[in-house]
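Obj.: predict assembly geometry.
Materials: sequence records (below).
Method: joint structure prediction, all chains together.
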Amino acid sequence: MRKRTVNKYELSNLIAERWSPRAFDPQKKIENRTMMSLIEAARWAPSAFNEQPWRFMVGHRGDPTFDKILSTLVEWNQQWAKNASVLVLNIGKKTFTKNGKKNVVFKYDVGQAVAFMLVEAMHHGIISHEMSGFDPEKASEIFKIPADYQPLSVTAFGYYGNSSDLSPELKELEFATRKRKNINDIAFGKMFGDCFKE
Amino acid sequence: MRKRTVNKYELSNLIAERWSPRAFDPQKKIENRTMMSLIEAARWAPSAFNEQPWRFMVGHRGDPTFDKILSTLVEWNQQWAKNASVLVLNIGKKTFTKNGKKNVVFKYDVGQAVAFMLVEAMHHGIISHEMSGFDPEKASEIFKIPADYQPLSVTAFGYYGNSSDLSPELKELEFATRKRKNINDIAFGKMFGDCFKE
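Observations (raw structure tokens):
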């Protein structure tokens, strides 16, 4: 199923075709070398002082790490994320390694690395869906994540399955129109909040 | 000048060709519709509860907004960023609009949107370089950014110029080998920090 962006200005396919489906195919697996390409993409993201504050717990469906990550998700997410091929717990390091100082953009930089993974996933025909609905404390406990690191989100990766298998509530979301603010609402030319000339 | 990633696993070109140069061409401009494509890419990024916490001040070289953003940068960055075609101040909204609650992943989500801009830029042959070395308080004052919004970074966009025009210090950085942690250092399979089987 495709749900391309409704864009006014030209967009590359890797961006335009990405969306966040819930109908993952429970039969398909992601090959290890393909998953490595996704991590490779994250690896080459830019970051403040090249700190690279991103860390990833990677679980393939059927292995204990997958089940552990799944168990940290809110129930609403578990019902569909269980069919993903891979679940990744995205973690950020709060301080700079070189001097121990607080890194005010560590979450920002982890977000960039994960975005690169989503783009690379599209390149391999893999769909993705990120979740903030999970229990970070539970995740820290399960995986013995040190206090200087913070679990930030979980990404489900996999292949598109059958939307008919979704519950009525999930199916409604699957077919709902994608919505975004107008360009005028997010980009400004002179002062914050001004009427931007596109 | 190209400085492709040294990747072990396959990468899409939009990710593999991106790096953060400093030798911007001071003659070239980015067409407005092209800049709009970059913002369009950011616009379609995913975010927690679809909050879309990203806002952008966009300045083209020669206009007052460009000069204002430039003035917030540390001197080290000003010396090369002045030649960029466009400077974008990336701003995040700290709270959810629907209920006023703190959004713990707003920086993460702005990072994702900016990463989408970088990828879209590559698609248009545009180079980019992000900076955390700037004065967010000054930026808030200049652009009258409300307290609920936080300037997070500045991105320089433009076209590649001539590396010979760089100062010796900048030239050294321009030709330095790109470095990243190993995949084993950022991805884990069983416990945090374990020896990951690629």
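Conclusions so far: Residues 156 and 183 of chain A are 28 Å apart (CA to CA).
To do: check interface contacts against the pulldown list.
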